[in-house]
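User: Let's play a game. I give you a shape written as tokens, and you guess the letters that built it. Ready? Here's round one.
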């Protein structure tokens, strides 16, 4: 299930997604969950067992698919869903309240956007801005490269809709499993480590330059920030700065109104960027961690490969220590840091990330009410204690136990004794 497939789904006609292959953290699965669709992956030989008009229960929370459920199983499932929907409704009623801990620590809770469609019916009051606008999905929705004018209008629409809240726009991040039907890239034996992200756009600079012109022009309509994907060296950042400054100067000379200052940040998702953080903080205005790719690169696990997807472990000590290092180095360097990967959408893990020192969290609109509630119920002192415990944990099992304790406490506060658990991969 590729990101392109998920992007093209008719969202109002899809109840859930089940696949025979793939991993829980593949791009497609992550995107499906961000849309609020129940998604269970890795169910080998499932299609051969399905029949037309067969009744099926798809439980995205537990990662299970129940074929031909009896009446009792259906009643139990519907009861659980009703309680979950009631809880979500209660959380949404308070989603506009700021994420301030009981001891007065404010956290920015921002939204990830894939498409302009994500803004339909979205209450911008429930977020503090856009922490990640994945511009590649705007390209996927077209039959050819969008022009500068088309991109400018799209970015302007987003900035206008956010009513003065900052929008962090990631430059085009294609390659690997994110392909454009009208842009053929060469076959690669290991595309996850190949020609993608900033590597691609620095080689095909027309793509980057057109996008930068559109972004800088749109900056006249609201605070916009640039986020660079797949950064692995200082030279890449410096090259983009040079291109950016030249294009901004050209637009000013051409009479365009542009914002006086546009912040430029980098995605921390390549291990090399983790260990040059002390140098990066001197070159950029902010950093944002993409936990999905960072995990796969740190653990040498292709998250789209079902043979090794079980080894993809976001609670691995190496991942948690890298996250703590990034937050600490950013703080020492005096720049803000955020998390925009899948971990930020897990409200218990979000508490731990704040305890590590992250200033902002960015997740799908589906997860924002829960995130805000969790942060309003947890003191910064408790968050720091949780962060310290999971960083010192010997393995993922200890981390999960600590996070489950947080979930139980938070659900008790809602009068719910059945906390949700992270989606498990299908067997």
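Assistant: Ready! My guess for every position:
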């Amino acid at each position: 299930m590729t990101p392109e497939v998920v992007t093209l789904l008719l969202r109002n006609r899809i109840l859930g997604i089940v696949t025979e292959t793939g991993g829980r953290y593949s791009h497609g699965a992550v995107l499906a969950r961000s849309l609020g669709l129940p998604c269970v992956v890795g169910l080998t030989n499932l299609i051969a067992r399905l029949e037309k008009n067969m009744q099926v229960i798809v439980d995205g929370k537990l990662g299970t698919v129940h074929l031909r459920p009896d009446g009792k199983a259906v009643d139990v499932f519907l009861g659980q869903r009703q309680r979950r929907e009631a809880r979500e409704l209660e959380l949404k009623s308070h989603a506009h309240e700021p994420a301030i801990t009981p001891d007065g620590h404010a956290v920015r809770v921002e939204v990830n956007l894939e498409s302009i469609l994500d803004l339909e019916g979205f209450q911008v009051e429930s977020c503090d801005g856009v922490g990640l606008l994945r511009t590649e999905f705007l390209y996927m929705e077209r039959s050819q490269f969008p022009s500068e004018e088309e991109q400018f209008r799209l970015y302007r629409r987003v900035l206008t809709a956010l009513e003065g809240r900052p929008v962090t726009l990631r430059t085009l991040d294609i390659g690997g499993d994110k392909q454009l039907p009208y842009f053929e890239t060469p076959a690669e034996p290991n595309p996850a480590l190949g020609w993608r992200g900033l590597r691609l756009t620095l080689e095909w600079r027309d793509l980057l330059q057109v996008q930068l012109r559109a972004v800088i022009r749109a900056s006249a309509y609201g605070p916009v920030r640039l986020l660079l994907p797949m950064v692995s060296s200082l030279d890449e950042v410096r090259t983009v700065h040079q291109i950016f400054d030249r294009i901004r100067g050209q637009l000013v000379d051409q009479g365009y109104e542009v914002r006086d200052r546009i912040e430029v940040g980098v995605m921390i998702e390549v291990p090399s960027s983790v260990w040059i953080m002390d140098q990066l903080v001197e070159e950029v205005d902010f950093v944002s961690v993409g936990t999905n790719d960072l995990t796969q690169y740190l653990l040498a696990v292709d998250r789209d490969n079902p043979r090794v997807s079980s080894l993809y472990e976001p609670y691995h000590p190496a991942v948690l220590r890298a996250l703590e290092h990034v937050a600490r180095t950013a703080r020492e360097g005096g720049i803000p840091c955020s998390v925009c990967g899948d971990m930020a959408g897990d409200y218990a893990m979000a508490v731990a990330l704040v305890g590590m020192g992250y200033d902002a969290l960015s997740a799908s609109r589906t997860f924002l009410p829960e995130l805000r509630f969790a942060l309003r119920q947890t003191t910064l002192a408790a968050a720091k204690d949780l962060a310290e415990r999971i960083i010192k944990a010997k393995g993922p099992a200890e981390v999960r136990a600590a996070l489950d304790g947080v979930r139980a406490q938070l659900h008790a506060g809602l009068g719910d004794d059945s906390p949700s658990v992270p989606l498990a991969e299908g067997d």
